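Quick one:
INPUT:
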């Protein structure tokens, strides 16, 4: 496992690339391919993933110093590192270890994206032994470079919520099963909407 200092050095080593790519990031509304690949190679989306699952499992101070180092080069990229690291960490901590390991070590380093706000029009329909997730969600930082999307939706049977309080269920969906479509612009970034195929 890398030392805390070595992880910060990884972030500092990326500043020049991140700074150089920042105008392209701003113009296209998402991180450039060279920046995404460099972040993946440096495993910066694994800051909060437990070491037992192959993550860096850094302490809080190191996490903040890494995000600060990347943000000093480009605020948008720093934001994406923060979101990706936290969501990957959530996968590592909240899912069964074998499931989390399958997601996080699927094809080398990956990034999860998503929103922890239940604000889309979506449902998870239970039919016998299968579940069907459909609907759309608001913008989620990092969605264009993610391998998995985390989203909320109420669990339903025959169109009716299973839980009486309509509490949402957290889902982790392969990005290959979703489509990102442009929507109304927001300040400082392009807004994207997830649409799960019907």
């Amino acid at each position: 496992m890398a030392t805390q200092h070595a992880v910060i050095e990884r972030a500092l080593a990326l500043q020049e690339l991140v700074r150089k790519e920042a105008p392209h990031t701003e113009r296209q509304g998402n991180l450039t391919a060279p920046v995404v690949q460099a972040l993946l190679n440096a495993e910066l989306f694994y800051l909060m993933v437990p070491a037992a699952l192959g993550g860096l499992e850094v302490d809080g101070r190191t996490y903040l110093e890494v995000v600060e180092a990347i943000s000093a080069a480009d605020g948008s990229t720093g934001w994406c590192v923060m979101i990706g690291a936290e969501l990957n960490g959530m996968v590592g901590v909240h899912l069964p270890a074998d499931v989390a390991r399958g997601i996080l070590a699927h094809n080398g380093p990956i990034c999860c994206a998503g929103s922890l706000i239940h604000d889309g029009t979506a449902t998870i329909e239970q039919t016998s032994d299968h579940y069907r997730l459909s609907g759309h969600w608001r913008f989620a930082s990092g969605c264009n470079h993610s391998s998995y999307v985390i989203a909320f939706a109420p669990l339903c049977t025959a169109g009716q919520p299973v839980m009486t309080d309509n509490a949402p269920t957290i889902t982790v969906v392969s990005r290959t099963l979703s489509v990102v479509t442009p929507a109304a612009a927001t300040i400082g970034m392009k807004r994207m909407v997830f649409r799960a195929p019907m």
